[in-house]
């Protein structure tokens, strides 16, 4: 039974867990047996009509899992053939034991001739692969793809980097992946998520105290990470206890994005929401706002006066605001108050990020919500580092900026300056629509206004944003997304 579905282990952390399990006296070959039998069980359950299971075995422990699976399938009466990269190579350790225990011959990969009715069991390379796949395996990957054969990957599709989620030259496109104890970043990060198919996590008997000890600060973004910090209205609640969120509007022809953020903030639990509007946009904003309040804010001096007189909890700046010195001046006038900086607000600091970062040193009060292009503008050197995963990049950016970074995309990563990070997985494809980012900024802003710490507010906002999109359904607009926002049951 998997104890914690939010756990993610890098390949290095999983290797540490395996080593610690063996050092504690657990039979490592026994773990391999359980892994291989789990793969065989998945193969028989998913593809009972298979004419031949083609088991591709590599030189390491991933191949050992494959030999165990092949033996188990043969004992169940299935047709099985094993193919290896190098028939002369004798695996060491547990993989060697597994190969010797398997009565089936290991045939050279060059002898493989695919047939209709085959199911491929990919046990060549696991999550720890750090080099491009060899040429002969690339040819097999291409042939399997051309035939359209189902592939069950052991741990991770061969050729896929378990840390970065990117193909190393080429990778199998699996229909099902069986991994052990915990998922790896490569299962969630794009494009790896698309290459893994359905991911099945199997408990092979490593104690959870060992798994938790080996794990770092990376998690799957799930309510267990932040549910306990959500504000829950009670009989003593009033609007000021639930926080006052202010959203800055652009000029008269660019007001819609700010209103989306404001409405999302109100729907997400802020007690009060005010749109701070330039004079020329007051009329158009007033014509569209009801429960959201409106205040004229023309310059940085007006912000300082408002801060001195108002009960303001958090701010959103960027959606439709415009790029330039005004955005920078407004941000710096906020004097370190909790802020979600999005879109134009981020781009305004692309040539001079240090004043922004310096203004938010110390307690983490800034949330940056860049998409790929905005991230590259603000952190160009980090963005171009090919050897870093999206998680690594987000964490590096968070540390540099002293901010929580919400690195958006189908695999949104939320990272904190202290190294914590979470990968989101509940966002549907139709969330990629105009205005959805404005809605997200308002949702995170509301949670900041409620008093949630920045990392948890960002993670909760991203998750609830995905849930709202699932609720709204395919073809939704940003307006429909706002109407689909619901609180999470915190009981």
Automatic annotation (TrEMBL):
Provide the alphabetized UniProt keywords.
ATP-binding, Isomerase, Kinase, Lyase, Metal-binding, Multifunctional enzyme, NAD, NADP, Nucleotide-binding, Potassium, Transferase
Q: Which residues form the YjeF C-terminal domain?
A: 222-491
Name the gene behind this protein: nnrD
Give the family, as the similarity comment puts it: Belongs to the NnrE/AIBP family. In the C-terminal section; belongs to the NnrD/CARKD family.
**Isomerase in keyword set:** yes
This protein's source sits in the domain of life called Bacteria
Tell me its EC number(s), please.
4.2.1.136, 5.1.99.6
Q: Where does K(+) bind?
A: 62, 122, 158
Give the originating organism.
Pseudorhizobium banfieldiae
Does the record's keyword annotation contain Isomerase? yes
Binding locations of (6S)-NADPHX: 61-65, 126-132, 155, 257, 320, 371, 438
Q: Name one GO biological process term.
A: metabolite repair
Q: Which cofactor does it need?
A: K(+); Mg(2+)
Q: Name one GO molecular function term.
A: ATP binding
Q: Which reaction does it catalyse?
A: (6R)-NADHX = (6S)-NADHX; (6S)-NADPHX + ADP = AMP + phosphate + NADPH + H(+); (6R)-NADPHX = (6S)-NADPHX; (6S)-NADHX + ADP = AMP + phosphate + NADH + H(+)
Its function, per the record, reads:
Catalyzes the dehydration of the S-form of NAD(P)HX at the expense of ADP, which is converted to AMP. Together with NAD(P)HX epimerase, which catalyzes the epimerization of the S- and R-forms, the enzyme allows the repair of both epimers of NAD(P)HX, a damaged form of NAD(P)H that is a result of enzymatic or heat-dependent hydration.
- Protein's name according to its UniProt entry: Bifunctional NAD(P)H-hydrate repair enzyme
Q: Which residues form the YjeF N-terminal domain?
A: 14-212
Share what the entry says about its subunit structure, partners included.
Homotetramer.
Task: Copy out the cofactor comment.
Answer: Binds 1 potassium ion per subunit.
Q: Which Pfam families match?
A: Carb_kinase (PF01256), YjeF_N (PF03853)
The positions annotated for binding AMP are 408-412, 437
């Amino acid at each position: 039974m998997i104890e914690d579905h939010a756990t993610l282990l890098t390949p290095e952390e999983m290797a540490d867990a395996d080593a610690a399990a063996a050092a504690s006296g657990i039979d490592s070959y026994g773990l391999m047996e359980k892994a291989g039998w789990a793969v065989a069980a998945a193969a028989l359950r998913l593809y009972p009509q298979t004419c031949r299971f083609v088991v591709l075995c590599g030189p390491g422990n991933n191949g050992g899992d494959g030999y165990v699976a092949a033996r188990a399938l043969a004992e169940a009466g299935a047709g099985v053939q094993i193919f290896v990269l190098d028939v002369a190579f004798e695996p060491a350790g547990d993989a060697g034991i597994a190969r010797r225990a398997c009565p089936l011959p290991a045939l050279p990969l060059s002898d493989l001739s695919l047939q209709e009715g085959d199911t491929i069991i990919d046990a060549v390379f696991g999550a720890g692969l750090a080099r491009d796949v060899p040429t002969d395996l690339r040819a097999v990957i291409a042939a399997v793809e051309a035939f359209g054969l189902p592939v069950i990957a052991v741990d991770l599709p061969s050729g896929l980097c378990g840390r970065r989620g990117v193909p190393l030259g080429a990778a199998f496109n699996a229909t099902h992946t069986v991994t052990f104890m915990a998922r790896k970043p490569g299962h969630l990060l794009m494009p790896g998520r698309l290459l893994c198919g359905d991911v099945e996590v199997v408990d092979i008997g490593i104690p959870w105290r060992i798994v938790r000890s080996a794990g770092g600060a990376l998690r799957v973004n799930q309510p267990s990470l932040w549910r306990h910090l959500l504000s829950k209205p009670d009989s003593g609640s009033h609007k000021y206890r639930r926080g006052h969120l202010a959203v800055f509007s652009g000029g008269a022809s660019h007001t819609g994005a700010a209103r989306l953020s404001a409405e999302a903030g109100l729907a997400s639990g802020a007690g009060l929401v005010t749109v701070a509007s330039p004079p020329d946009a007051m009329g158009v904003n007033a014509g569209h706002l009801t429960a959201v309040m409106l205040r004229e804010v023309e310059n940085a001096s007006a912000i300082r006066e408002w801060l001195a007189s108002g009960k303001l909890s958090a701010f959103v700046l960027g959606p439709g605001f415009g790029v330039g010195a005004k955005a920078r001046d407004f941000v710096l006038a906020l004097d370190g108050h909790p802020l979600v900086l999005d879109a134009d607000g981020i781009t305004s600091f692309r040539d001079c990020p240090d004043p922004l970062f310096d203004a938010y040193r110390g307690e983490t009060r800034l949330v940056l919500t860049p998409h790929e292009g905005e991230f590259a503008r603000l952190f160009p050197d980090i963005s171009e580092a090919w050897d870093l995963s999206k998680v690594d990049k987000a964490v590096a950016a968070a540390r540099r900026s002293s901010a929580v970074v919400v690195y958006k995309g189908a695999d949104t990563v939320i990272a904190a300056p202290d190294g914590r990070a979470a990968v989101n997985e509940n966002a549907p494809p139709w969330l990629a629509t105009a205005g959805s980012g404005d809605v997200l900024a308002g949702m995170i802003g509301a949670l900041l206004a409620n008093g949630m710490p920045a990392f948890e507010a960002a993670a909760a906002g991203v998750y609830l944003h995905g849930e709202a999109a699932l609720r709204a359904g395919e073809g939704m607009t940003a307006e429909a997304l706002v109407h689909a926002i619901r609180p999470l049951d915190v009981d």
